[in-house]
């Protein structure tokens, strides 16, 4: 597991049982969001006080800035399939934004938010509740038809 410690500005990792804890970085500025790209051996985090999103190798080496000049970035999410990075900004008109994983093509995607501290990506488009009800009803109906057509002994 990996985590950032907002209080002491560190990036750390440990085994899932808490053993073998290591401090990877000690130079973070109010770190928040954290995401792993295991396929490419990278870790991303939001450095809120320095208004940057940064990345490094899974061992903390090779730090690079992905995005700079942000307004208090907090939450992060990676869409590795489509090569997108999503984040929230807290100051100067809170919003949700996205960019390519290399930091190019940054754009606002939702500007009517108040204080987003976490982002989780799911299916798109998000199914409407009525769609789920219709799907469930349709499957139940198919089951009933199949049951009625099944020969009885």
Description:
The protein has 1 helix and 11 strands, in the order E-E-E-E-E-E-E-E-E-E-E-H. It has 153 residues and is mostly beta strands. Strands 4-5-6-7 form a 4-stranded antiparallel beta sheet, with no helix packed on it. A 4-stranded antiparallel beta sheet has the order 8-9-10-11, with no helix packed on it. A 3-stranded antiparallel beta sheet has the order 1-2-3, with no helix packed on it. A hairpin with a 5-residue loop joins strand 9 and strand 10 (95-100). The protein starts with a strand and ends with a helix.
List the main descriptive attributes of the protein structure presented here.
1 helix, 153 residues, mainly beta
Rg over CA atoms, rounded to whole Å, is 21 Å
N-end to C-end Cα span: 56 Å
Number of strands: 11
Mean pLDDT: 86
The amount of beta strand, in percent, is 35-45%
Helix-strand pattern = EEEEEEEEEEEH
Main sheet makeup = 4 strands, antiparallel
Structural class: mainly beta
Unreliable stretches, pLDDT < 50, 5 or more residues?
A: 137-150
Strands ordered across the widest β-sheet? 4-5-6-7
The residue fraction in helices comes out at 10-25%
Give the overall silhouette: globular
Number of helices: 1
Task: Walk me through the topology.
Blueprint: E1 2-5, E2 10-13, E3 22-25, E4 31-37, E5 42-47, E6 52-57, E7 64-67, E8 73-79, E9 84-89, E10 95-100, E11 107-110, H1 129-149
Antiparallel strand pairs: 1-2, 2-3, 4-5, 5-6, 6-7, 8-9, 9-10, 10-11
């Amino acid at each position: 597991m990996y985590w950032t410690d907002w209080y002491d500005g560190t990036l750390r990792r440990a085994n899932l049982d808490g053993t073998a804890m290591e401090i990877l970085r000690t130079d973070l500025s109010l770190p928040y969001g954290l995401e792993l790209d295991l396929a490419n051996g990278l870790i991303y985090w939001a450095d809120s006080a320095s208004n940057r999103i940064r990345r490094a190798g899974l061992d903390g080496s090779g730090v690079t800035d992905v995005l700079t000049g942000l307004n208090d970035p907090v939450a992060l999410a990676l869409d590795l399939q489509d090569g997108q990075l999503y984040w929230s900004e807290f100051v100067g008109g809170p919003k949700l934004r996205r960019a390519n994983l290399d930091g190019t093509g940054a754009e606002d995607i939702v500007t009517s938010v108040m204080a987003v501290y976490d982002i989780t990506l799911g299916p798109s488009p998000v199914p409407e509740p009525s769609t789920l009800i219709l799907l469930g009803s349709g499957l139940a109906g198919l089951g009933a038809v199949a049951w009625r057509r099944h020969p009885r002994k």
